[in-house]
Automatic annotation (TrEMBL):
Domain of life: Bacteria
Keyword Transmembrane helix: yes
TM spans (from-to): 12-38, 50-70, 76-94
UniProt-recorded name of the protein: Uncharacterized protein
Keywords: Membrane, Transmembrane, Transmembrane helix
Annotated organism of origin: Acetobacter fabarum
Length: 99
């Protein structure tokens, strides 16, 4: 495998990949934690505030690391795949916990 230098030639594609699938990934993480902890969603509770800030922190981590991908296509693939994986896991957990 050849070592390719990291470049920012495709910075716009990487940025949009961090925004669109990145926010879906962070919302999916928030949904899974909320489902597993049994949080009702009342916005004035401490647990709901924790979930809101958790989504922000995860998204900031994604936005900070989206420029480390070798290309915009790879950023879209990895972040989009991670978002689909998280939401698929949420669907499975939602069916298991309600059954």
């Amino acid at each position: 495998m050849t070592d390719l230098p990291l470049t920012n030639r495709q910075w716009l594609a990487k940025l949009v990949a961090g925004i669109v699938p990145g926010i879906m990934f962070s919302f999916g993480c928030m949904a899974i934690v909320g489902l597993l902890c049994g949080i009702t969603g009342e916005p004035r509770t401490a647990s709901a505030q924790f979930l809101m800030w958790l989504a922000v922190l995860v998204w900031l981590g994604v936005m900070g690391s989206c420029f480390l991908f070798r290309s915009g296509l790879r950023a879209w693939g990895v972040l989009g795949g991670a978002a689909m994986l998280v939401w698929g896991l949420f669907e499975i957990l939602a069916k298991v916990t309600t059954a």
